[in-house]
Design goal:
Number of helices of chain A: 6
Shape of chain B: elongated
Distance between the termini of chain B: 47 Å
Shape of chain A: globular
Radius of gyration of chain A: 21 Å
Distance between the termini of chain A: 54 Å
Largest interface: A-B, 82 and 92 residues
Number of strands of chain A: 15
Structural class of chain B: alpha/beta
Strand order of the largest sheet of chain A: 11-10-9-12-8-1-6-7-13
Number of helices of chain B: 8
Number of strands of chain B: 18
Oligomer: heterodimer
Helix content of chain A: 25-40%
Order of helices and strands of chain A: EEEEEHEHEHEHEEEEHEEEH
Largest sheet of chain A: 9 strands, mixed
Helix content of chain B: 25-40%
Structural class of chain A: alpha/beta
Strand content of chain B: 25-35%
Largest sheet of chain B: 7 strands, parallel
Strand order of the largest sheet of chain B: 7-11-6-1-4-5-12
């Protein structure tokens, strides 16, 4: 089984978000970049398939040379090979189009991508990729078993879970729950050393016109101060929620 | 030219978000000076959409589509959108809508913007405001393609009555057998309980509650308020509560009218995930907890005293206001 894990290079979850160039660009100054958390759950599951079922795991990223430390981290965690499509991402649709070329040329059985990236929150890469490559697709995937070409996936739905039967070739949009948080791998020294020897292929992008474009960014307005209510006066809280906020 | 809206139903009845996206579509229709067509699957109450500005509902009747199937639903929506020369297609932010919209976008080569929180700022170029960076920022995003797809954030635009003369047509669509390869075999869903996605009120507990055995009062408070229960990341990581309850940046987003956080300090990741809630209440014994800076109302105190007192007083309040 040949697996491709699509990874996005995103600001660490603790990052403060600022904008620059007249609020038209995300300010990367002082920001620590990591593998998108949703993608990391997928990568860990892919490594599990490698260890238990003899799969080969490639990772792909659409980005400039700046993303290579994040790609190396994925290799240090255990991916066999990496592909970087050498272009700044335009939007989710264009990222999926670039990845679709890699998928079509690589004869992958399983493609794993996070359900959304925590920066631009488009949530469209796995779905568009599945459609462009005519592969089966399960989104919000929190469980995946593969036997031969049959796949059984667990999908989170509003208020519960759904078990889905499908088959390879398959794209999943994965999220927390696909593997336990405690099973996420931290690269060890041996992995980091080995990652330096692994292949990182840089390929040139296809020409794409962006379907969408962020023209301006804004930060949330500062919050007014909290109204504190005395702990022995919960009646006052109920009064405020009923008469002032009108939410109960 | 038309505006198409996907109105989600369950067991023949429209879900709450259907009326919000219909209201949104009506506003877009007004701006573009065109009518709104709703697409529903096996729904029984299509006249209802007329109350929110929909002038025609195309109800797709098909036994194979009784259970949600993303690919087949996307095929059907794309087919209808093309037949009706749709220029704009509106989706909600439910799990199913977010599953479908990218598939429709790819089929129609349409630019898709999710998490939109307001009516379009401009229709030429078509520009919408959306959340980005997990609610730590907003983006004004322009869609450049002929067909535009907008995903509306739950509970952001609101529901507006707009009585319109409306008609319903039952239609059939072509089914591609390849789309039915991926199928639902079992659904495990809480029945009769509010879900985090739909609830007006969400009551959430954190590590300050010390252990899973103390969740009784969280559940009781939620029950009195008709609320959904949720938890912080450490609580789900420790296995005190199921993953499905984790709200925050890497968990579920919350966009309720009221969010009550009990024993949650308010890490930046948690705040990002819940900031779309309209009113936030914090109960925490640490006055320095960062959540107090992001909340509207707060009580500094021991949750094990405050919550039971709140439950008792709310029972009285509910009895008086029933």
């Amino acid at each position: 089984m040949k697996i491709l894990v699509c990874i996005s290079n995103v600001p660490d979850t603790t990052s403060k978000i600022n904008f620059t160039e007249g609020d038209t660009k995300f300010d990367t100054n002082g920001v620590q970049f990591v593998i998108n958390p949703n993608d990391e759950f997928g990568l860990t599951r892919a490594i599990w398939f490698k260890e238990k079922q003899g799969a080969t795991v490639h990772v792909a990223n659409v980005g400039s040379a700046n993303t290579e430390p994040t790609i190396r981290k994925a290799l240090a965690i255990g991916a066999d090979e990496a592909i970087r499509i050498n272009t700044e991402p335009l939007d989710g649709f264009s990222v999926a189009q670039q990845l679709a070329e890699v998928v079509k040329n690589g004869a992958y059985d399983l493609v794993i991508a996070g359900r959304e990236s925590i920066d631009y929150n488009g949530g469209m890469v796995p779905g568009i990729l599945a459609c462009l490559t005519e592969m089966n697709f399960v989104n919000n995937c929190i469980g995946l078993e593969i036997e031969g070409t049959n796949a059984t996936a667990l999908r989170e739905i509003d208020g519960g879970k759904e078990k889905i039967a499908t088959s390879l070739p398959l794209v999943i949009g994965c999220q927390k729950g696909l593997v336990a948080e405690s099973d996420l791998k931290i690269p060890n020294m041996r992995g980091i050393m080995m990652a330096r020897q692994k292949k990182l292929n840089v390929i040139e992008p296809i020409a794409i016109e962006a379907s969408t474009q962020d023209v301006k960014f804004e930060k949330p307005a500062p919050k007014s101060a909290v109204k504190l209510v005395n702990a022995d006066n919960v009646d006052e809280l109920i009064n405020l929620l009923h008469n002032e906020a009108k939410v109960i | 030219m038309s505006v198409i809206v996907y109105t989600e139903s369950e067991n023949g009845k429209f879900k709450k978000n259907a009326f919000e996206v219909a209201s949104y579509a009506a506003e877009v229709g007004k701006q573009l000076n065109t009518s709104v067509i709703a697409i529903a699957f096996n729904s029984n109450e299509n006249q209802e959409l007329g109350n929110y500005g929909v002038s025609k509902t195309l109800n797709i009747i098909n036994n194979e589509l009784e259970v949600f199937n993303a690919k087949a639903y996307a095929d059907a929506i794309a087919e209808v959108a093309q037949k009706e020369s749709a220029t704009t297609i509106i989706f909600s932010s439910s799990a199913n809508a977010k599953y479908l919209a990218p598939l429709v976008a790819a089929k129609l080569k349409a630019g898709y913007v999710p998490n939109v929180i307001a009516a379009p700022e401009n229709t030429s170029p078509f520009t919408v405001k959306r959340t980005a960076f997990s609610n730590k920022g907003f983006a004004l995003t322009q869609i450049n393609t002929d067909i535009k797809i907008v995903g509306v954030s739950n509970n952001s635009f609101g529901v507006f009555e707009n009585s319109t003369s409306t008609s319903t047509e039952d239609i059939e669509v072509t089914l591609d057998s390849n789309s039915l390869i991926t199928k639902s075999v079992e659904v495990d869903k809480l029945v009769g309980k509010a879900t985090i996605a739909d609830a007006d009120i969400v009551v959430s507990g954190g590590r300050g509650l010390k252990g899973p055995e103390n969740w009784g009062m969280v559940e009781e408070l939620a029950e009195i308020l008709g609320a959904a229960t949720a938890c912080s990341k450490p609580v789900s990581d420790l296995g005190w509560r199921p993953h499905g309850e984790h709200v925050g940046q890497t968990g579920k987003p919350v966009a309720s009218n009221l969010y009550i956080a009990i024993g949650i300090s308010g890490a930046i990741q948690h705040l990002a995930g819940v900031s779309a809630s309209k009113v936030k209440v914090v109960i925490n014994n640490d006055p320095e907890a960062p959540f107090f800076k992001a909340a509207d109302y707060g009580i500094v105190g021991d949750a094990f005293e405050v919550v039971p007192a709140l439950i008792e007083k709310l029972k009285d309040f509910k009895a008086q206001n029933a």
